[in-house]
Design goal:
The protein contains three helices and no strands. By secondary structure, it is mainly alpha-helical.
């Protein structure tokens, strides 16, 4: 990636050498390629950050699901331990 940026910068420096007073027809293209490379690098960086965020959120979701499942199991266990209406009538 940086090789391309260096090559574009070298081409730009060559094209803007003092031996040529006229602007090279490749200058607009070089500018556009340079802008595209910068945009590509920003997008690649943003994509990497979002990929890390997705991984972290996926891990958090899985942890919360596990905790929810454990809480449900505890609630179900407590419900099973509650006296039934028949048992409540027999109690003094």
């Amino acid at each position: 990636m940086t090789h391309i940026v260096v090559a574009v910068a070298q081409a730009r420096a060559y094209n803007s050498a003092p031996m040529s007073l006229d602007a090279s027809p490749f200058d607009p293209l070089a500018d556009r390629v340079e802008r595209l490379l910068v945009r590509h690098e920003h997008l690649r960086s943003a994509n990497a950050a979002l990929t890390e965020q997705v991984a972290a959120l996926t891990q958090e979701r899985d942890s919360l699901r596990s905790r929810l499942q454990a809480a449900r199991a505890r609630v179900d266990s407590l419900i099973e331990r509650l006296p039934t209406s028949d048992t409540a009538k027999d109690a003094p």
